[in-house]
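Researcher: Sequence recovery benchmark, item below. Answer with residues only.
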Protein backbone atom coordinates (compact mmCIF):
# COMPACT_ATOMS: atom_id res chain seq x y z
CA UNK A 1 0.00 0.00 0.00
CA UNK A 2 2.85 2.41 0.84
CA UNK A 3 4.42 1.75 -2.54
CA UNK A 4 1.11 2.36 -4.31
CA UNK A 5 0.55 5.66 -2.48
CA UNK A 6 4.10 6.76 -3.35
CA UNK A 7 3.45 5.85 -6.99
CA UNK A 8 0.23 7.89 -7.13
CA UNK A 9 2.03 10.80 -5.45
CA UNK A 10 4.88 10.63 -7.97
CA UNK A 11 2.54 10.47 -10.97
CA UNK A 12 0.51 13.42 -9.64
CA UNK A 13 3.70 15.44 -9.10
CA UNK A 14 4.84 14.65 -12.64
CA UNK A 15 1.51 15.70 -14.16
CA UNK A 16 1.64 19.01 -12.27
CA UNK A 17 5.20 19.49 -13.52
CA UNK A 18 4.11 18.72 -17.08
CA UNK A 19 1.39 21.35 -16.87
CA UNK A 20 3.79 23.95 -15.44
CA UNK A 21 6.37 23.15 -18.14
CA UNK A 22 3.90 23.49 -21.00
CA UNK A 23 2.60 26.73 -19.50
CA UNK A 24 6.19 28.02 -19.33
CA UNK A 25 6.43 27.88 -23.13
CA UNK A 26 3.35 30.07 -23.49
CA UNK A 27 4.34 32.31 -20.57
CA UNK A 28 7.78 33.18 -21.93
CA UNK A 29 6.66 33.33 -25.55
CA UNK A 30 3.39 35.22 -24.93
CA UNK A 31 1.57 32.38 -26.68
CA UNK A 32 -1.98 31.13 -26.00
CA UNK A 33 -2.01 31.43 -22.20
CA UNK A 34 -4.25 33.67 -20.07
CA UNK A 35 -1.30 35.19 -18.19
CA UNK A 36 2.08 35.66 -19.88
CA UNK A 37 5.30 37.48 -19.14
CA UNK A 38 4.06 40.70 -20.79
CA UNK A 39 0.30 40.51 -20.17
CA UNK A 40 -1.70 42.12 -17.41
CA UNK A 41 -2.09 45.64 -16.08
CA UNK A 42 1.20 47.37 -15.43
CA UNK A 43 1.62 49.05 -12.07
CA UNK A 44 4.55 50.69 -10.35
CA UNK A 45 7.84 49.60 -11.99
CA UNK A 46 9.60 49.57 -8.61
CA UNK A 47 6.94 47.34 -7.08
CA UNK A 48 7.03 45.08 -10.13
CA UNK A 49 10.81 44.68 -9.94
CA UNK A 50 10.64 43.83 -6.22
CA UNK A 51 7.80 41.32 -6.60
CA UNK A 52 9.32 39.66 -9.66
CA UNK A 53 12.77 39.47 -8.10
CA UNK A 54 11.29 37.83 -5.00
CA UNK A 55 9.47 35.28 -7.15
CA UNK A 56 12.64 34.44 -9.07
CA UNK A 57 14.60 34.30 -5.82
CA UNK A 58 12.08 31.90 -4.26
CA UNK A 59 12.36 29.56 -7.22
CA UNK A 60 16.16 29.73 -7.18
CA UNK A 61 16.36 29.10 -3.43
CA UNK A 62 14.07 26.07 -3.57
CA UNK A 63 15.92 24.63 -6.56
CA UNK A 64 19.39 25.19 -5.12
CA UNK A 65 18.76 24.10 -1.53
CA UNK A 66 16.67 20.99 -2.23
CA UNK A 67 19.10 19.77 -4.91
CA UNK A 68 22.05 19.58 -2.54
CA UNK A 69 23.09 16.12 -1.30
CA UNK A 70 23.24 17.26 2.34
CA UNK A 71 19.65 18.50 2.19
CA UNK A 72 18.53 15.25 0.53
CA UNK A 73 20.10 13.20 3.31
CA UNK A 74 18.28 15.28 5.94
CA UNK A 75 15.02 15.41 3.99
CA UNK A 76 14.80 11.66 3.43
CA UNK A 77 14.78 11.07 7.16
CA UNK A 78 11.24 12.46 7.11
CA UNK A 79 9.90 11.35 3.72
CA UNK A 80 10.36 8.10 1.76
CA UNK A 81 13.55 8.12 -0.26
CA UNK A 82 11.59 7.16 -3.38
CA UNK A 83 9.43 10.30 -3.03
CA UNK A 84 12.34 12.72 -2.61
CA UNK A 85 12.67 13.64 -6.29
CA UNK A 86 8.90 13.84 -6.79
CA UNK A 87 8.63 16.22 -3.83
CA UNK A 88 11.39 18.38 -5.30
CA UNK A 89 9.60 18.44 -8.67
CA UNK A 90 6.22 19.16 -7.07
CA UNK A 91 7.45 22.12 -5.02
CA UNK A 92 9.36 23.55 -7.99
CA UNK A 93 6.24 23.25 -10.16
CA UNK A 94 4.02 24.92 -7.55
CA UNK A 95 6.46 27.81 -7.21
CA UNK A 96 6.48 28.18 -11.00
CA UNK A 97 2.69 28.33 -11.01
CA UNK A 98 2.86 31.00 -8.31
CA UNK A 99 5.36 32.93 -10.43
CA UNK A 100 3.09 32.79 -13.49
CA UNK A 101 0.13 33.98 -11.40
CA UNK A 102 1.85 36.81 -9.54
CA UNK A 103 4.33 38.00 -12.19
CA UNK A 104 3.93 41.73 -12.84
CA UNK A 105 4.58 43.02 -16.36
CA UNK A 106 7.07 45.82 -16.90
CA UNK A 107 6.27 47.23 -20.35
CA UNK A 108 8.55 49.28 -22.54
CA UNK A 109 10.72 47.98 -25.36
CA UNK A 110 14.36 47.07 -24.78
CA UNK A 111 14.57 45.96 -28.40
CA UNK A 112 12.04 45.37 -31.15
CA UNK A 113 12.90 43.46 -34.31
CA UNK A 114 10.80 44.36 -37.34
CA UNK A 115 12.57 42.53 -40.15
CA UNK A 116 10.44 39.46 -40.99
CA UNK A 117 13.48 37.29 -41.62
CA UNK A 118 15.03 38.04 -38.25
CA UNK A 119 11.66 37.63 -36.53
CA UNK A 120 11.43 34.14 -38.04
CA UNK A 121 15.01 33.38 -36.97
CA UNK A 122 14.35 34.43 -33.38
CA UNK A 123 11.13 32.41 -33.25
CA UNK A 124 13.09 29.45 -34.60
CA UNK A 125 15.74 29.83 -31.90
CA UNK A 126 12.99 30.07 -29.26
CA UNK A 127 11.49 26.74 -30.32
CA UNK A 128 14.95 25.21 -30.77
CA UNK A 129 15.70 26.06 -27.14
CA UNK A 130 12.65 24.18 -25.88
CA UNK A 131 13.47 21.24 -28.16
CA UNK A 132 17.08 21.07 -26.91
CA UNK A 133 15.81 21.26 -23.33
CA UNK A 134 13.31 18.43 -23.76
CA UNK A 135 15.71 16.19 -25.67
CA UNK A 136 18.40 16.79 -23.04
CA UNK A 137 16.09 15.56 -20.26
CA UNK A 138 15.51 12.38 -22.26
CA UNK A 139 19.22 11.84 -22.83
CA UNK A 140 19.85 11.73 -19.07
CA UNK A 141 16.64 9.76 -18.34
CA UNK A 142 13.62 12.04 -18.34
CA UNK A 143 11.58 9.87 -15.99
CA UNK A 144 14.33 9.62 -13.40
CA UNK A 145 14.99 13.36 -13.57
CA UNK A 146 11.35 14.04 -12.69
CA UNK A 147 10.89 11.29 -10.12
CA UNK A 148 8.77 8.71 -11.96
CA UNK A 149 11.47 6.05 -12.19
CA UNK A 150 12.02 6.21 -8.44
CA UNK A 151 8.36 5.79 -7.48
CA UNK A 152 7.83 2.96 -9.99
CA UNK A 153 10.87 1.17 -8.56
CA UNK A 154 9.45 1.57 -5.05
CA UNK A 155 6.11 0.20 -6.23
CA UNK A 156 7.82 -2.85 -7.78
CA UNK A 157 10.16 -3.13 -4.77
CA UNK A 158 13.26 -3.01 -6.94
CA UNK A 159 16.54 -1.14 -6.47
CA UNK A 160 17.69 1.50 -8.89
CA UNK A 161 21.24 1.10 -10.25
CA UNK A 162 23.97 3.43 -9.04
CA UNK A 163 24.55 6.56 -11.16
CA UNK A 164 26.84 6.04 -14.14
CA UNK A 165 28.71 8.89 -15.80
CA UNK A 166 27.64 9.20 -19.46
CA UNK A 167 27.90 11.87 -22.16
CA UNK A 168 25.21 11.08 -24.77
CA UNK A 169 24.73 13.24 -27.89
CA UNK A 170 24.58 16.92 -26.82
CA UNK A 171 26.67 16.17 -23.73
CA UNK A 172 29.65 15.39 -25.94
CA UNK A 173 29.75 19.04 -27.02
CA UNK A 174 28.47 21.00 -24.04
CA UNK A 175 28.29 20.04 -20.37
CA UNK A 176 24.88 21.56 -19.71
CA UNK A 177 22.70 21.40 -22.85
CA UNK A 178 19.57 21.51 -20.70
CA UNK A 179 20.56 24.98 -19.49
CA UNK A 180 21.54 25.99 -23.04
CA UNK A 181 17.95 25.19 -24.04
CA UNK A 182 16.60 27.44 -21.29
CA UNK A 183 18.88 30.31 -22.30
CA UNK A 184 17.91 30.10 -25.96
CA UNK A 185 14.21 30.04 -25.08
CA UNK A 186 14.43 32.90 -22.57
CA UNK A 187 16.48 35.32 -24.68
CA UNK A 188 15.24 34.65 -28.24
CA UNK A 189 12.39 37.10 -28.74
CA UNK A 190 11.78 39.79 -31.37
CA UNK A 191 10.12 42.00 -28.72
CA UNK A 192 12.10 42.23 -25.50
CA UNK A 193 10.35 44.21 -22.77
CA UNK A 194 11.88 45.29 -19.47
CA UNK A 195 9.88 42.62 -17.67
CA UNK A 196 11.08 39.91 -20.03
CA UNK A 197 14.63 41.20 -19.66
CA UNK A 198 14.38 40.93 -15.85
CA UNK A 199 13.11 37.36 -16.18
CA UNK A 200 15.83 36.37 -18.68
CA UNK A 201 18.65 38.06 -16.75
CA UNK A 202 17.51 36.72 -13.39
CA UNK A 203 17.14 33.20 -14.78
CA UNK A 204 20.58 33.42 -16.39
CA UNK A 205 22.14 34.44 -13.09
CA UNK A 206 20.48 31.51 -11.35
CA UNK A 207 21.59 29.11 -14.10
CA UNK A 208 25.22 30.16 -13.63
CA UNK A 209 24.93 29.71 -9.86
CA UNK A 210 23.17 26.36 -10.37
CA UNK A 211 25.94 25.15 -12.66
CA UNK A 212 28.57 26.04 -10.06
CA UNK A 213 26.75 24.09 -7.34
CA UNK A 214 25.83 21.20 -9.62
CA UNK A 215 29.36 20.73 -10.90
CA UNK A 216 30.68 20.70 -7.36
CA UNK A 217 28.30 17.83 -6.61
CA UNK A 218 29.24 16.02 -9.83
CA UNK A 219 32.94 16.23 -8.99
CA UNK A 220 32.18 14.79 -5.55
CA UNK A 221 30.18 11.97 -7.17
CA UNK A 222 32.38 11.08 -10.16
CA UNK A 223 35.79 12.48 -9.17
CA UNK A 224 38.51 12.64 -11.82
CA UNK A 225 36.14 11.32 -14.47
CA UNK A 226 34.15 14.53 -14.30
CA UNK A 227 37.23 16.73 -13.86
CA UNK A 228 38.62 15.44 -17.17
CA UNK A 229 35.25 15.93 -18.84
CA UNK A 230 35.09 19.50 -17.56
CA UNK A 231 38.48 20.26 -19.11
CA UNK A 232 37.52 18.78 -22.47
CA UNK A 233 33.95 20.06 -22.99
CA UNK A 234 32.54 23.58 -22.82
CA UNK A 235 30.10 24.57 -20.09
CA UNK A 236 27.47 26.37 -22.23
CA UNK A 237 29.26 27.16 -25.49
CA UNK A 238 29.78 24.05 -27.66
CA UNK A 239 33.39 23.02 -28.05
CA UNK A 240 35.33 19.86 -27.45
CA UNK A 241 39.05 19.48 -26.80
CA UNK A 242 40.58 16.24 -27.97
CA UNK A 243 41.88 14.18 -25.04
CA UNK A 244 45.65 14.14 -24.84
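Model:
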Amino acid sequence: MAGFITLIYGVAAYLIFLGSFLYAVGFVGNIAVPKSIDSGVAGSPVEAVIVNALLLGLFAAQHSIMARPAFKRWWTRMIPHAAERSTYVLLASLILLLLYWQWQPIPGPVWTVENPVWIAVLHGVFWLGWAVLLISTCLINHFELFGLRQVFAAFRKTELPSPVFRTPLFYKWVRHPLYVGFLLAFWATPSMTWGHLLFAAGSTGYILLGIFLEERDLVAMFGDQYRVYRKQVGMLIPWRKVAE
